[in-house]
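Retro notes (design track)

What went well: tokenization of the new backbones is finally stable.
What didn't: we kept losing track of which sequence belonged to which structure.
Fix going forward: every design gets posted as structure first, then sequence, in one message. First example under the new rule, 205 residues:
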């Protein structure tokens, strides 16, 4: 599967989504894909970040992670998006990046890419499913092929979210555990496998 190219594009404030993005990256690489791990540009003012110890610490720890660009979207066969929820919707930071993809959409360069997403909320019932479904609305417009994890692996019966891997951070105090990380790893592996099959099928058509 080493001809499959994966972009893991995320926004994370205090590190939970970042940990899941790293797990997705490692799983995709293990599946044989070439992977780019990219964060989106931060929109919050420096004083807001500095006012939250966890936010500031995570920003400093990940300062060397490259920022996502449109070239990453165009390059990838698989798009894996990660975001915390904001009132049941994707974060403004990730949404701003998505909104910048209009030129690629207009040229049809996002059609038939495999797309999937994962999320984290501060509380239980904090909008996990609605956030993932909102991201799917973008994928429909792009003509992408949505690959959700479903219950296609035993880990999903423990994780419990067929829309995409998800995590409850308890207001940023609890990092993703083994179940959440295994769930997002399965999700990434499945996306790579589907993309490989699609590329083979399109090539033979």
């Amino acid at each position: 599967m080493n001809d499959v190219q994966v972009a893991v594009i995320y926004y994370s404030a205090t590190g939970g989504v970042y940990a899941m993005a790293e797990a997705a990256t490692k799983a995709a690489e293990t599946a044989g894909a070439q992977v780019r791990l990219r964060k989106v540009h931060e929109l919050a003012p420096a004083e807001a970040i500095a006012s939250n110890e966890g936010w500031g610490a995570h920003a400093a720890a990940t300062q060397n992670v490259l920022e996502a660009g449109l070239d990453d979207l165009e390059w990838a066969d698989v798009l894996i998006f990660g975001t915390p929820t904001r009132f049941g919707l994707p974060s403004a930071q990730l949404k701003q990046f998505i909104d910048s993809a209009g030129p690629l959409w207009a040229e049809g360069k996002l059609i038939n890419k495999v797309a999937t997403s994962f999320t984290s909320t501060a509380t239980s019932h904090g909008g996990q499913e609605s956030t993932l479904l909102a991201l799917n609305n973008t994928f429909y417009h792009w003509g992408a092929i949505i690959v959700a994890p479903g219950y296609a692996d035993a880990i999903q019966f423990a994780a419990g979210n067929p829309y995409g891997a998800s995590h409850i951070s308890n207001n940023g105090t609890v990092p993703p555990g083994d179940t959440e990380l295994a769930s997002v790893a399965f999700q990434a592996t499945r996306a790579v496998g589907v993309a490989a099959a699609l590329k083979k099928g399109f090539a033979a058509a």
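Added context from the reviewer: The longest strand covers residues 78-86.
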